[in-house]
Amino acid sequence: MPLKWLLHWQPNAGTTVNSQILSEVSQCVESINGAKEGRWKSTLTFYRPVLRDQTLQAEYPRDCLGISLQEQPNKYYFILRSQRIVLEADSTIQMIMEKLQSYKSRVSLYFEGFQYQLGDFQLRVGKVVPTHSENLRGIVMEVEYLPISSLDKSRQIMEDFVDIWQETVSKRSLPGHFMHIEPNFAEYGLSDHYTSQHTAVQYAIVMAQLIASVRN
Amino acid sequence: MECVVQGIIETQHVEALEILLQGLCGVPKERLRIHELCLKSGPNLGAVASEVRLLCDLEQPEPTWTVRHVGGAMRGAGAEQISVLVRTVVESKASKNVLRFFYTLGYKLDHELLRVGFAFHFQRGAQITVTVTSVNKMLKLHATEEAVPVTPGIQLVEVTAPASSDNYTEVVAAISSFCEYLAPLLHLSKPNVSAGVVPTAAAAAASLMSNGGGKTL
Question: Family assignment (chain B) (predicted)?
Answer without folding.
Answer: Belongs to the Mediator complex subunit 18 family.
